[in-house]
Protein: rRNA adenine N(6)-methyltransferase
Organism: Babesia caballi
Amino acid sequence: MPRNGRGRRANWGALRMEAVDSSQESESKKPLRSLKHVSNIDIMPLKQRQKSGKPAKKPARPRERQATGSAGTGEEPRSEVPRLPAGEFKPKQSLGQNFISDQNIMNRLCSAFDKDEGGQADGRQVIEVGAGIGSLTHILFKKYPKMTAIEIDARAISQLSRNLPDLDVIHDDVLQVDYEAVSRAKGCSLWVVGNLPFYITSQILFCLVDFRRVIDVAVVTAQWEVAQRIVARPCEFEYSILSVVLQLYATPRLLFKIPSHAFYPVPKVDSGVVRLDFKRAAAPDCAPLVLRRVLRDAFNQRRKMFKTSLRHLLDQLEIPRLPRDLEDMRPQQLAPQGYVALARWLQDKGRFKGAAARFGLHDNERMRAPLGREALDPSPQRVWRQERHGEV
């Protein structure tokens, strides 16, 4: 049990609230505009234009490692990355393209779904986010022939169309895809799998939380530091907003670690595979927008006590002070259900005045804007996703 600065036991950290299921409405009734068969996508010419007098350089091929510890099976890792035609495809750093090159790890990643998940036999429920050139897709497609891949890079889609002509592809940004529309088109809940780009891993995870009503399970790779944050417990250094949100809306498990040399190009850090079970977690019994505001205000000043970090929010809601047990606590000391209880307490005690000004504000400004009555909506369409890329 965490203690506050004066030595008193903090009762809020162990508080557990009864979670109830809330009815969720479909976010959008718009037709699925980007779901199409890959044969309908034009194959782009892949030859790069050569500079005058200088022949195009051939990209380095991924090195095969003899180490067996990465896969944990005792077998020699083999590179299953499809051939990158010389001078035709170079991974883009701007898209965070690091492809898995160890077949044993890819097999373990594809086997992370339980056999009793209850999905469709043909695998129509499987969605791969960020398919790239298809290193993981090849293994998934053999097991789930009706799966769908999401990819933003037209060069990668062209390569997929050559190697897997029967694969369905959504040519779009994974953060902009309407997963409810995908679920309606397929007639079932979704299983999400993917090797996530490091630079938008958290944004993708928050996006999946917003669409949790149509996603049963997600198995994804993440930077090792992010994977540790997802499963971190209160009072641990890695405990963060990501820890609280994913532990409230899903049941996260850290499955195994992937060494950096199992990717091409080789990144500077290791990765981890995380499984998120959304269907087994009940929705928190509080307004999601109020909870989001509490978490952001608290963790943006994670070294400060609640009486300081939440002062601005308390003034907006015309609440003189927090409960005594909370005032001297810091964000990393409060358990996820404690944040639900705190958000619920603010809902009951605070004054939510009219509709807050939202339009034309950057997300950081919107985060500090006064909470209006719309913040009490139990099932808003957008909570954890960002309006634009790169916002925090």
The two ends are 31 Å apart (CA to CA). The longest strand covers residues 215-223. Residues 232 and 239 are 5 Å apart (CA to CA). Residues 284-376 form one domain.
